[in-house]
Every structure is written in structure tokens, then in C-alpha cells.
Amino acid sequence: MVDFEASTSDLCPFVTLASLNMKKIIRSPKHLNFIRSLPCYISEQTPSQACHIRILSDGGTGLKPSDCFVLPFIYQYHKMQTDLGEQTFYKKFNINPFTLAKELVIISPCKKVNNREVLHLLDIRAKTYARIYQDQ
User: Fold this and answer.
1) I want to staple 89 with a disulfide (CB 3.0 to 4.6 A). Which of 9, 11, 21, 84 is the partner?
2) In whole angstroms, what is the distance from residue 26 CA to residue 97 CA?
3) Do 34 and 109 contact (CB within 8 A), yes or no?
4) Rounded to an integer, what distance in angstroms lies between the CA atom of residue 77 and that of residue 19?
5) Close Cβ partners of 18 (under 8 Å, ≥ 6 residues apart)
6) Which residues pair with 73 in a beta bridge?
7) What is the residue-wise DSSP string for 36-94?
8) Contact 71/101 with Cβ under 8 angstroms?
9) What whole-number distance in Å separates Cα of residue 61 and Cα of residue 43?
10) Which whole-number Å values give the CA distances from 131 to 1, 95, 135, 136, in the listed order?
11) Which sign does the torsion angle of CA 127, 120, 73, 42 carry?
12) Does residue 104 contact residue 126 with C-beta atoms inside 8 Å?
């Protein structure tokens, strides 16, 4: 079990622990396979990879974020996301990653991620992301 407080203590003044309330990492091969079955969000090409969102997430050094924090990108864009850095990448393509992740969770067949708690969490993250990165 991951202590989420330790993972978020240095994020920024806009982020409160109350708004980032996950207690354990969610692993869902079913949701990851669903994401991989979708076309790339940017190019609409296939095959897609399940690309984890790391900023404002519950991941850490050497620990992938929960599987609800994933987006479908082809290899080229997944690499660009890593090479440019997430903030620059999402700004370049005008993406709020949490809004998109929430839309995907809503249509996911996986009940482990498609539930009220995760949807609420993604909604809070989308608003926090917009305040910090998109309203500049």
C-alpha cells in the first residue's frame, strides 16, 4: 500500500491532500488493454500504448501511477511526452490529461476504474491541472 501523502507533499500550493485522496495504487490490466485498443488521441492511428500521466498522480520514483491515469498515444507521441516533459507536451497539444483520462474511464469496461471515487478524483485533478498549468 502506498502512502499517498508522501507522494504529494511537494506538488504545489494549489494541491491539497484532501483533493488527492487515493490510498493505494490501482492496477487494472483490463483498463490498460481497453486503452491500447483505442486509436491514438492525437493522430488517430493504431496501435496505441497506454501512457501513464505522472504529474499530479500517485506515482513516484520507480513507481508507475495508478492505471486510471492513462491515455492512448502511439509510440511517437508517447516518446515525445517523455522527451519534452509532460507539461510542455500537453500544452503543445492543448490537452488536459485528466479530463481525457476521465472521459476514457467513463467508457471503460473495467469496474475497478469506472466508479464514482475514481471519477471524482479525476475531476478534481482536471480542475487542479487547469488552474496550475492551463490558466497561465
Assistant:
1) 84
2) 18
3) yes
4) 29
5) none
6) 49
7) HHSPPTTT--SS-EEEEP-TTSS-BTTBPPPTTSEEEE-HHHHHHHHHH-HHHHHHHTT
8) yes
9) 30
10) 29, 13, 5, 8
11) negative
12) no
Global confidence as pTM? 0.81
d(CA 54, CA 79): 14
C-alpha cell at 8: 504529494
pLDDT of the chain along its 136 residues, tens only? Answer: 333 333 333 344 333 333 445 568 999 999 999 999 999 999 999 999 999 999 999 888 888 899 999 999 999 999 999 999 999 999 999 999 999 999 999 999 999 999 999 999 999 999 999 999 877 5
Q: Are 80 and 50 in contact (CB under 8 A)?
A: no
d(CA 65, CA 132): 20
**100 φ, ψ (degrees, to nearest 5):** -65, -45
What is the number of other CB atoms lying within 10 angstroms of the CB of residue 45?
13
Query: In this structure, are residues 71 and 53 in contact, taking their beta carbons and an 8 Å threshold?
Result: yes
